[in-house]
Amino acid sequence: MRCQPGVVPAVMLAAYLTLSLEAQVRAIQRPFYAEQRDEVWYPDGKRDEDIVRITRLANRSFLAIYPLPADNDRFVKIGYFFYLNDTQAHVQYVGDTALHVAWPNYDLPPSIPGQDSMVDRYGDCSVLTDDAITKVAAGKIRHFAILRIDQVKGTELYSSWIAPELGCFPLRRQVLVDGLVRERVETVQLDLLPEDTQLSLPKGIRTISPQAYCDLYRKRHGQDYLPQRECSRLQEVYDRFKAANGQGDAGQPAGSGRKQE
What we know:
Layout: H1 10-25, E1 32-41, E2 47-56, E3 62-70, E4 73-86, E5 91-96, E6 101-105, E7 135-141, E8 144-153, E9 156-163, E10 169-177, E11 180-192, E12 206-207, H2 210-221, H3 228-245
Parallel strand pairs: 6-12
Antiparallel strand pairs: 1-2, 1-11, 2-3, 3-4, 4-5, 5-6, 7-8, 8-9, 9-10, 10-11
């Protein structure tokens, strides 16, 4: 193929961009700890701001900790609630520090725990090979190359600035509704962690069964955590797992990880 000097044929440019994208997909996914400022603007005009703390491993396991609002006032925080997704043990722990407990969820998709809602939010590089999603190089954030992804849903525009080298973790996110900012998430701290980093539940947290968690939540908050039918179903899954694995209790993820109390 011959072309004028200084002119790159479109097919060659496309091939280069494809190779570059594939190289990013194969980039090493490093363990890291991040703190993100999450700003939300409500329809009533009020603004709320929280700091979300996330530890994520190269195997896509993660621990995410959020401030826990009071039942009667979303602006008053009474502790933290958290999710720990363990992709090796195929279990998700859900709990809060106000109750000092967590329950293990074994009712997960066969691929990656929480992929339908949680893992996607904290990094899923399948978006890089999805031709229906437009990716645009957007410089660097915190010294990592960034791709911007925009998705439109009705009057809502969802934008994410993802870092392929961090397992496509979104270092920045924004939601516009009718052209107005409704949510903005910005990474304010990012630390790379040792390769052998492991996750553990927050300090002082013990594990209990799903039904016990539902009962304790109802007693503490005066309302249902989940419908009783769903609590019973999750309890049955939990009991089957214990029986199949000869466990006397739920067990906990091992390892030290980054301290997040």
